């Protein structure tokens, strides 16, 4: 049984509750962050906190009173739940105004803050389990502000179900002929040594792992192009991979049933995973 955090209190998970009038429940009016834990320490915490503040600002959700204590709360949950490898999930909603109304409530309604942990032994292994991911491509039917990390995760869930139904592991979403990103990760291909991933805009989430991986790649003298690419280009690539806080760098070996390169995890993805794990452990807190 886990200890979770709700609005200032650490509670056993079955005692933690949120109102039925919470706008996160009624309107998906909330944002979230997921931070990984390796060796009991938080990876890229400052990046996740910065993006949380940006997401709240973009939606005019007040910063919760706890905002200055979030590091301490994350650490306390990791300690209480004895997490060595795993995740800390954080959700902030616009709160519970006591009734349903499209109009945002006033300042008297405080944001709801929920955090919980998930234990994931093996999360930080040098090579992820399995031989790499098989992905399908699906149309991107999400809303237009994908740069805000909102809890509106229904379409990504549908995408994962479409992948499952097709016997694949995940889906890459396509808009105007180009891949935007994976259902819960940023998408990359490698061709002739060049790493290609979609440029930042409102069309994709600005991945915290993406930012770190691109920095490390450039520091290692790898060539990076931030631009859109088509599913055809992806299928003809030498390698493909995804990044996220929960998967770090994970190779993709098949797209729409077609093997990428030799059909096994490629050297660039494997190397970037090693570099990412090494470097981010150095700054874990
Ligand atoms: N893109 C989407 C749609 C996501 O949901 C996520 C993570 O949940 C990412 C990209 C990767 O972001 P990060 O590296 O910050 O986890």
Summarize this structure briefly:
With 285 residues, this protein is of the alpha+beta class.
Would you kindly provide a written description of the structure presented here, covering whatever features stand out?
The chain is built from 7 helices and 15 strands. With 285 residues, the protein is an alpha+beta fold. Helix 5 crosses helix 7. The longest helix is centred in the last third of the chain and has 16 residues. Pyridoxal-5'-phosphate binds next to helix 5 and strand 13.
Topology:
Elements: E1 3-6, E2 9-12, H1 23-27, E3 30-38, E4 41-42, H2 45-58, H3 70-80, E5 86-93, E6 112-119, E7 133-139, H4 154-165, E8 170-175, E9 178-182, E10 186-191, E11 194-197, H5 208-219, E12 223-226, H6 231-235, E13 239-244, E14 248-255, E15 258-259, H7 267-282
Parallel strand pairs: 7-8, 7-14, 11-12
Antiparallel strand pairs: 1-2, 1-6, 3-4, 3-5, 5-6, 8-9, 10-11, 10-13, 13-14, 14-15
Helix pairs in contact: 5-7
The structure holds pyridoxal-5'-phosphate.
Pyridoxal-5'-phosphate (PLP) binds at residues 34, 181, 184-186, 205, 207-210, 243-245.
């Amino acid at each position: 049984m886990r200890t979770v955090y709700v609005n200032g209190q650490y509670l056993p998970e079955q005692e933690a509750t949120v109102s039925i009038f919470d706008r996160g429940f009624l309107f998906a009016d909330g944002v979230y962050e997921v931070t990984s834990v390796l060796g009991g320490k938080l990876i890229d915490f400052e990046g996740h906190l910065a993006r949380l503040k940006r997401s709240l600002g973009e939606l005019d959700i007040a910063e919760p009173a706890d905002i200055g204590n979030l590091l301490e709360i994350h650490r306390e949950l990791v300690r209480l739940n004895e997490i060595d490898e795993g995740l800390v999930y954080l959700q902030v909603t616009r709160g519970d105004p006591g009734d349903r109304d499209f109009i945002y409530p006033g300042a008297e309604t405080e944001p709801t803050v929920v955090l919980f942990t998930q234990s994931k032994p093996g999360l930080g292994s040098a090579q992820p389990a399995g031989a790499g991911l098989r992905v399908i491509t699906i149309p991107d039917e999400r809303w237009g502000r994908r740069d805000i990390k909102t809890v509106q995760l229904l379409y990504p869930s549908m995408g994962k179900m479409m992948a499952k139904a097709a016997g694949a592991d995940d889906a890459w979403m396509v808009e105007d002929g180009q891949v935007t990103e994976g259902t819960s990760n940023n998408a990359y291909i490698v061709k002739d040594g060049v790493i290609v991933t979609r440029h930042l805009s409102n069309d994709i989430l600005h991945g915290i792992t993406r930012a770190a991986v691109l920095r490390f790649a450039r520091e290692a003298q790898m060539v990076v192009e931030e631009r859109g690419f088509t599913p055809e280009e992806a299928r003809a690539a030498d390698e493909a991979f995804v990044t996220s806080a929960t998967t770090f760098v994970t190779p993709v070996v098949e797209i729409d049933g077609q093997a990428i390169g030799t059909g096994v995890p490629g050297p660039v993805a494997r190397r970037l995973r090693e570099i990412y794990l090494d470097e981010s452990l150095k700054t874990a807190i």
